[in-house]
Amino acid sequence: MLLLVPTFLGPAPASDLFPQKLLDAVSSARYFVVENSKTARHHLKLLHPGIVQADLVVHELDKHHPEQGIRDFLAPAVSGETVVLMSEAGVPGVADPGALVVAEAHRMGIRVVPLVGPSSLLLALMASGLNGQQFAFNGYLPVDAAARKKAWQALEARSTQSPGVPSTQLIIETPYRNGATWESALAALQPETRLCVAVDLTLATEWISMRTVREWRAVAAPNLHKRPCIFLIQANGRR
Questions:
Q1: Which of 85, 132, 141, 239 is the most buried (most CB within 10 A)?
Q2: CB atoms < 10 A from the CB of 239, how many?
Q3: What is the pLDDT of residues 46-63, one digit of tens each?
Q4: Could you write out the DSSP letters of every residue in 52-120?
Q5: pTM above 0.85, yes or no
Q6: What percentage of the chain's residues is helix, strand, coil (to nearest 5)?
């Protein structure tokens, strides 16, 4: 069996975010596939303080060649053991190279079991008030300013292409570029496009706000510097 185990989005009590089923699964598992072993071991200690780290077999996915060794990592599951897949933050397989492990598990006939935990994308969408029936996650925008502006405008146009109500388009950003991404959104988007910003999800400093671009231009910019942030937009309609 391959267990998909969500992890923390930031410092928060495990009991606030994870059901007992997940905590029990972690406590009894021995084999793990992760992006970074140091981070994963820290998460495991928070999820189950009594876990004996020396007993664990932790495999890292090579970010440059993530497909190499996956079948070997999953071999214990073929023999009846449980293998746990963990992301760096949030749910594995979503905006995460762990999707390759899940795909291989299906090819090998291994049962895949997703467990409940925080997803920054879904939490942001839930709290945005934007269209939750039709939405898309678009990863990161280009670093180049001109290309970033064009990307915002392309996402805005894509939002209007869905049948009926315009769709919601989500992006994530490297925290130190949040300010530039924010400024480019206000410069590139139409005044009536709705823009939601969700920051520090699940943390004590969590902040979520949705306004039109016109309304955002009339208020002080939020403090987004070096804070995990999701941006969501929904166009006003067909143009």
A1: 85
A2: 9
A3: 998 888 888 999 999 877
A4: -GGG-EEEEPPSSSTTTTHHHHHHHHHTT--EEEE-SSBSTTSSSTTHHHHHHHHHTT--EEE-----H
A5: yes
A6: 35, 20, 45
